[in-house]
Amino acid sequence: MSSGPLYEKTAVVTADVEEAFGDWLREHLVDAATYTGVVGIETAFSPGDGEEAPGQHTWRYTFDNDESLDVFLEREGNDSYPGVEQRFGADLTVTSRVLREDPVYSGEESPPTCLNCGAVLRGQYCGNCGQRAKTRLISLWELVRDAFGDLFELDSRIWQTLIPLLVRPGRLTHDYLAGRRARYMPPFRMYLVMSLVFFVVAFFNPREELALLYAPETEQATPEQVEEAGADTEAAVGEPDAAIPEEARAELERFGMDIDAINERIAEAEADDSEGLSINFGDEAGDTEAEDCDLNWDVSNMPQWIQVRFSEERVQAVCKRIRADDGDTFGKRVLDNVPLALFILLPLMALVLVFLYPLSKRYYVEHLLFFIHFHAFFFLILTLQVLWTRLIGSFDGPGWLAVLPVVATSLYIPVYLFKALRRVYEQGWALTMLKYLLLVVAYAAGFGTMLLLALLIAVAGS
Length: 462
What we know:
By secondary structure, this protein is of the alpha+beta class. Among the domains are: 6-101, Alpha-Beta Plaits; 223-271, no CATH class; 304-461, no CATH class. 57% of the residues lie in helices and 7% in strands. The protein has helices at residues 18-32, 66-76, 84-88, 140-152, 157-167, 171-177, 187-203, 206-209, 223-229, 231-236, 246-254, 259-271, 287-292, 304-309, 312-324, 328-356, 364-394, 399-425, 429-461, and strands spanning 6-13, 38-46, 55-63, 92-99. The chain is elongated and about 125 Å long. The two termini are 72 Å apart.
């Protein structure tokens, strides 16, 4: 509990010089006790596991202040002073360290602790979990900064990650494997964020998810409603000079019917000298639906678990449900399974890289890291493409502006993959091109298989 520093030395000594070292240490400690500023000396010894195993000696000096320690260390570093290293040479290994009192424990008051993990705080941030010691929200602006601080700060890890991810193929993987990691977002977290943002941007429909904020669309008439509202229309069919009564016209317009279009079809029916006019509203259910869903499905030769999950009756029932809502529900089920399918694709494509680069001396997880970064880039560039297309559509811009990023993205993604392979695996153009083509074929096969898997999962869950 002295306020002065401690100087500790530890020596691992071989059995051959164990006795001689013990004699030297006793004489040295007696002599060191007379040094100016030394107020205490402690020793400890840990024997080895066997007769030939080295033992460990530890001795610690306590000084009254830092000036006394500096004088002692200067003497120890003097070549004219025969220290323990000069005396025993390669027969021992010596380490040393300086210990100073921690001011946190010196006061009578209990030290502040982290509210998250309970560790003792020695500064603005917790040394154990990293949480900031300052927790009180002073203003609304500070609350916003806590939520979006990384977006507003140009030197944050988000921008230091997204910019090279987008324009420098293979840079993140190369730097991560080289040990430069703190400046970037963790790879797997970045992949999850990019995939989540993409699927939200691409498939989020505000009119469905936020229907309360939108005015209801024009009510669509059912065939029964139109038949009842347009009873007078049938009387007008076949009579060239007849007009739709105002009451029927108002009722049909309420249901969003195009009166001019109906009049044109009446005129066409009269011109064709037909006996009457038949107006169909959507597909008619009945025999047509049954014929469309007659798939001649036969899984009798397949494994039992396939026969149970994809029986003819079940597949036909799914087919009828798809036809009932034009496949909207089924399509959403498939899209819900795409993230899982792409996630499963990651380790499979990393395995392909293992076979393509057998002499790279890289572990499997390093190949996996490559595709984690590539898929994160894939989601990022597709997200930007979707946002650009929607922006052009909202301002009624020319069509070529919406098509341009689609063409650019289609060209940039394969070039990006090739350059990333070159940078990370550092092989020549010809060899990289050969492996690139093999990888593209394997990726296309794997991607198609994963989409088929998503489709089957949607059928099984319908």
